[in-house]
Amino acid sequence: MQVFFMNKKAGFTLVEILVVVLIIGILVAWAMPSYEKAVAEARSAQLQSSLSSAVKASETYYMATGRWPSSFNSLTFDSNLTTLPGSASTCDKNLLPKSVKRGKDFELVIYNASGNLQHNFISAHFIDGKYKCAGFVHYNYLGNGWQSAEADLKGKTFCAEYLYNRNCTGYNCKNFCEQVMSKTFKRYVQLINLFE
Asked: Which residue ranges traverse the bilayer (predicted)?
């Protein structure tokens, strides 16, 4: 009896390869938002840490001098940030007098105003990427010109989204604080959406 073997080529068919590519595409599409959120959370931890250091230094300065700092030059705290000359903030160029320290991905800003709207607050926000101009803000002092509705901001830190220099308007800029940080919108103050 003779046995004949057919020459069968080994390999995958086009349909099998397409199915594998489709499965990989679905897995990537499913995993990518989780990955982006994890990266944003890690970057925001760095923001919060830098802001916390600046806030503690400003409180120490206040205890020693009786007034809030108007620039980073008068504060002592560890940071790998560069002090910028003038008031060249990325996200809020027209807001208030300020002092700016910038890192690779974010900047710290001290706002200090006198006159009718006396106040002092420190902001840490991203300067590039999907969440540009979003971050955190801590209100040290709110003076005489502030409405009583803003009195509850004093001494608190909020997740914040600056509306200046962004691709959104009004109350529509809620992608970082709500989606990444899981915060709830509190109010809109001076071109900033605040979240708790």
From this structure: 12-32
